[in-house]
Amino acid sequence: MSDLVKIAVDAMGGDDSPKKVIDGIIHKHKKNEKVFYKIFGNKDEIGKLINKKIDPNNFEIIHTDNFVQSTDSPLEAAKRGKDTSMWLAIESVKKKEADIIISAGNTGALLVIAKLNLKMIENIDKPALSALWPNKTGMSVVLDLGANIECSPKNLFDFSIMGASLYTSLYPNKKPNIGLLNIGSEELKGNETIKETFKILSEKKSSNFDFSGYIEGNEIMNGNVNVIISDGFTGNIALKTAEGTANFIVKELKKSMTSSILGKIASLLNYSNLNKFKKRLDPRLYNGAIFLGLDSPVVKSHGGTDFIGFSNSLNVCEKIVNGNLIEKIKRNI
User: Fold this and answer.
1) Cβ(312)–Cβ(326) under 8 Å?
2) What pLDDT is attached to residue 263?
3) Which stretches of the chain score pLDDT less than 50?
4) Which residue among 167, 187, 230, 305 is least crowded, i.e. fewest CB within 10 A of its CB?
5) What domains can be seen in the chain, in order of their start residue?
């Protein structure tokens, strides 16, 4: 078991849990058996779902009846006690019994409980929420997506280091190219925080990444920049806008292809291309946000995703551990 990636799983967080969580583990296990799962939650429910589906040498169930509710505030979640599945999963990473923790539960609660249990990496003041976005040439890392409403130039510079380290962990053969999300590409545009961050990144040359300057929202998908830096307020709005636009396009295309005989014929003739298009915009493929800045990796799966999305976030966990993300951040910061 020593050579296996050990993932601590909060099995009770998110919609349709623990079923979708366990189904995600089973789906992942069929493709890769080099992972050990420490699963926290109701042993009776989890046992019925997982028994005889994967090798018993690849998982352990730690029973608890208590779990964080989706309606809990971060404070309520923390007060719920140290025997919740989320708290115990995070604590197992703190105790080095697991390499990484994943939960599809309450985002605010996960961040607060993680910060209560885990230390910050030295010289980093604030954690950032990061995620993967598709672009024309592959994937981009975007942060912060909501953990910090206000950020200083130092915070944004730290995010740059962390984002570049994450990108290198996920894609070892590609060099990170950083862009600052702004309202224009000219140096004079933006608020004082953005301008000061631009200056710092321009002056502090690094062998770990390239700095491309400002990037506007309509350029995020171009693929010229693969690490995009923002404060949490701006980043969260950009994320929700992109998600909403993608959903709108898929729904409208589906409607136009099924509303008439000609549309149905066209969709049959173009089935292969349409299927590729749909997959490209499938949010399940990019599931798995990462809290960066803590001295152990914490991954947040979307609460509303299905087992395929959860399985994909387990892939992210495995890549982060194998890519030595935390060591990369410590070295680069």
Assistant:
1) no
2) 59
3) none
4) 187
5) 1-124+293-333 (3.40.718.10), 135-143+151-284 (3.40.718.10)
